[in-house]
From TrEMBL:
CDD domains: PBP2_GcdR_TrpI_HvrB_AmpR_like
Protein name per the record: LysR family transcriptional regulator
Superkingdom field: Bacteria
Transmembrane segments: none
GO molecular function: DNA-binding transcription factor activity; sequence-specific DNA binding
Family (UniProt): Belongs to the LysR transcriptional regulatory family.
Domain HTH lysR-type as annotated: residue spans: 5-62
Record lineage: Bacteria, Pseudomonadati, Pseudomonadota, Betaproteobacteria, Burkholderiales
Biological process according to GO: DNA-templated transcription
Source organism (scientific name): Cupriavidus plantarum
InterPro entries referenced in this protein's UniProt entry, alphabetically: LysR-type_TF_proteobact-type (IPR058163), LysR_HTH_N (IPR000847), LysR_subst-bd (IPR005119), WH-like_DNA-bd_sf (IPR036388), WH_DNA-bd_sf (IPR036390)
Length: 309
């Protein structure tokens, strides 16, 4: 008996397990349900154990099938990702991930500039507030808003972050925001990326914790929505200056107090330390560093694995 199982049969089995159906697996693989059934039967003969209980229009996995699935599925995923990354390297493709607010407010207005100067690169952008799984999602580079501490990643700080208060000029006049204490009668626009109103007020106002807790507010799960609400004179948002550059430049938003709360988190360019960057990802990394006037070179004596570009 060959030491390597029939790989085509393993693929048919994995698809059948995911769909709990030979027919749906067949649709995915572009073959007939009968062909999938034959491949699964071939694998059962090779393994010497039944994998499915076959009933009319239904297949039920056996306990052995569930155990086998848990072991082979990660391996098949690695094959898929390795193959995709090899193909993308040949075509100079780059998969970039970043938070939605950073993508919309900072990267999108500059994306055309990068592509014009690097026409041979095929860029794929995904946005998420969650920490990406580089291998599972096939991501080459990511901009993450975090502390910069992760031993698995090569990191480069693009911009340190601080939380600043912004509102429309009309709202500042209406609420008479001459000093931070005036926020007692304002509406605070909270967002999950910068949930720091209590700390900001404790530092810059004379309000007690009890009075701070009594201030009216609206909670948003995305910075984009909170910033838009501030533009529409619905309250005061606490966010990064980098996310409101356009609004401040066009005078849609103002910083009525001129103070920022330093944060332990910042915007970092990251990729797995164990993975080397392809040419396209390296060029994108260098371009991002240049936009922030950050050197891509590591300090003398640094681990070469920490090099981001």
């Amino acid at each position: 008996m060959p030491t390597i199982p029939p790989l085509k049969a393993v693929v048919a089995f994995e698809a059948s397990m995911r769909h709990s159906s030979f027919s749906l697996a067949a649709d995915e693989l572009g073959v007939t349900a009968g062909a999938v059934g034959q491949q699964v039967q071939k694998l059962e003969q090779w393994l010497g154990v039944p994998l499915f209980v076959r009933q009319t229009r239904q297949v039920t996995p056996t306990p052995e099938a569930r155990i086998y699935m848990a072991q082979v599925q990660p391996a098949l995923a690695e094959i898929v990702h390795a193959s995709r990354r090899m193909r993308e390297r040949r075509h100079n493709a780059v998969r970039l991930s970043m938070p939605p607010s950073f993508a919309a407010k900072w990267f999108a207005p500059r994306m055309a500039h990068f592509l014009q100067h690097h026409p041979g690169i095929s860029l794929s952008l995904s946005t998420s507030t969650a920490l990406v799984d580089f291998e599972l999602e096939g991501i080459d580079l990511a901009v993450r808003h975090f502390s910069g501490e992760d031993p698995r990643l090569a990191v480069r700080l693009l911009r340190a972050d601080e939380a600043r208060a912004y509102c429309s000029p009309a709202y500042a006049r209406k609420a008479k925001l001459g000093a931070p204490d005036a926020l007692l009668s304002a509406t605070l626009l909270h967002n999950s990326l910068h949930p720091h109103w209590a700390a900001w007020l404790a530092r810059y106002s004379g309000l007690t914790a009890r009075r701070i807790g009594s201030i009216a507010g609206i909670q948003f799960d995305q910075s984009l929505m909170a910033i838009d609400a501030a533009v529409r004179a619905q309250g005061v948002v606490l966010t990064s200056a980098i996310l409101v550059e356009e609004e401040v430049a066009s005078k849609l938003l103002v910083d009525p107090f001129g103070v920022g709360l330093p944060l332990p988190s910042g915007y970092y360019l990251v990729h797995p330390r164990a993975a080397s960057l392809n040419d396209g990802a390296r060029q994108l990394s260098q371009w991002l560093c240049a936009q922030f006037s950050v050197s891509c070179l590591q300090p003398s004596g640094a681990d070469p694995a920490d090099r981001v570009c």
